[in-house]
Design goal:
Radius of gyration: 23 Å
Structural class: alpha/beta
């Protein structure tokens, strides 16, 4: 396998994992935030990690080699940036790719790879397929010279749906893949406490929220309305400390009504739950009283050794997607059971990977519920059931889960099949 970079960087005579400048950014303006630039682990990182044979060449050398090669476009930030839909951006998907690379793609020597596997964007919401095909057609790039690798783990299914709607037969290749499953969690968190007897556990659950997304705002309001945040390790910023803009209370009310379709009483209770949080409790602080830093690459052992299970609020909840990221891999790394508030079929996808989940010790029927309000309500009810147990009952409950926890930790650290399937499909 040959990978081409416009500006490769050499260290001690060998090409480095990271280039001087990422592909797809030729002639980018100085005042524009780069929309290409890998989130680790990169494709090159993974090839190194698993001992795969590959070469890094400059784009010119790759072309003159006359051998097939791949040209990576590693996305950074939301699709509005790399698709050129963001205010002030004049780029298109391939506007920063050299004419020589585009010509090589036309001749089918070069395969362009759009690598966006650290996020699970909904392609219909962002018109990703529409923009890709428009760009390829405008530049006369054959569709079989383009691969889209996405962290949306149903991207291939959604692509086929889009193709049927748009009566497309000649298609690009779409491959679902999550890179963060292969990050080095030992470096992120060196020590793990596997307390099989739960001697130090005295809190019900761990619930971490840094970014105040609307579904998290709704969820924490619902939990608070049921008095389920007591004796937990739950974080949530105040409006003044949040790294992103808070949704307005009016937006929350609309979200309860239109997206979650809650009945009047439940909605009223949840709105009161948010009012109580805002006036009396926020910010909720667990480990750090600092909200600007993205804590992807940080983790501490005691968060898990003091709690019985994690409640994982994924970045997306009501999109056309299945997305798994470090928020689920960290509990698995720490031998922690979890309830997952994500898109439907997230647990189904975990099991397809080879992990085990926790039925019948946790009622996981919520994962199959496509109605977002019902799914969130089922999650709240399951949390309520677990929090009604005594500490001694929870210790026994946790002990029953140890074989599953051990399997998941081992599988996370040793399995390579997900990456092998990616290479095979490429």
């Amino acid at each position: 396998m040959i990978l081409a970079f416009d500006f490769p960087k050499k260290t001690d005579g060998e090409f480095d994992h990271w280039p001087e400048k990422f592909n797809g950014l030729i002639d980018i303006k100085d005042d524009i935030e780069p929309y290409y630039g890998s989130a680790p682990p990169s494709f090159v990182d993974l090839l190194f990690k698993f001992g795969k044979e590959f070469k890094i060449l400059s784009s010119d050398r790759a072309i003159t080699s006359i051998k097939p090669f791949y040209y990576l476009l590693e996305t950074q930030g939301p699709p509005e940036g790399w698709l050129g839909m963001k205010d002030g951006y004049e780029n298109t998907l391939l506007s920063g790719v050299s004419d020589k690379i585009l010509e090589s793609a036309r001749e089918k020597q070069c395969t362009l790879v759009l690598w966006s596997c650290n996020e699970g964007y909904d392609p219909f919401q962002y018109k990703i397929f529409d923009k890709i095909y428009e760009e390829l057609e405008s530049k006369d790039i054959p569709f079989d010279s383009f691969i889209f690798v996405s962290g949306n783990l149903i991207i291939d299914i959604l692509h086929q749906t889009w193709a049927r709607i748009n009566m497309k037969n000649d298609l690009i290749k779409c491959i679902p893949f999550n890179n963060e499953i292969y990050d080095d969690y030992h470096k992120i968190q060196e020590n793990v406490i596997f307390d099989k007897e739960s001697k130090e556990r005295n809190k019900y659950f761990l619930l971490l929220n840094r970014a105040p997304r609307i579904h998290r705002m709704a969820f924490i309001s619902w939990l608070n309305s049921e008095n389920l945040l007591d004796n937990t390790l739950t974080s949530y910023p105040s409006e003044e400390l949040a790294p992103y803009n808070f949704s307005k209370k009016s937006d929350l009310s609309v979200y309860f009504s239109r997206m979650l379709n809650l009945n009047r009483k439940t909605k009223s209770n949840c709105v009161e739950g948010w009012k109580d949080l805002e006036e009396n409790k926020l910010p909720l602080i667990v480990d750090v009283d600092e909200w600007g830093t993205n804590h992807y690459s940080t983790s501490v052992d005691w968060l898990y050794s003091k709690t019985f299970f994690s409640v994982v609020t994924e970045s997306i909840f009501d999109d056309l997607s299945v997305f798994l990221d470090e928020k689920i891999w960290k509990p698995i790394y720490n031998y922690h059971p979890f309830i997952m508030m994500g898109c439907p079929n997230s647990l189904v996808k975990l099991r397809e990977f080879g992990f085990k989940t926790f039925h019948p010790f946790i009622n996981e029927s919520y994962d199959l519920e496509i109605n977002h309000g019902k799914r969130m309500g089922m999650i709240v009810e399951e949390i309520k059931k677990l929090c009604s147990m005594s500490i001694d009952e929870l210790k026994s409950w946790y002990k029953n889960l140890i074989p599953i926890l051990e399997h998941n930790k081992s599988f996370l650290e040793n399995d390579t099949s997900h990456f092998d399937k990616l290479l095979k499909r490429m």
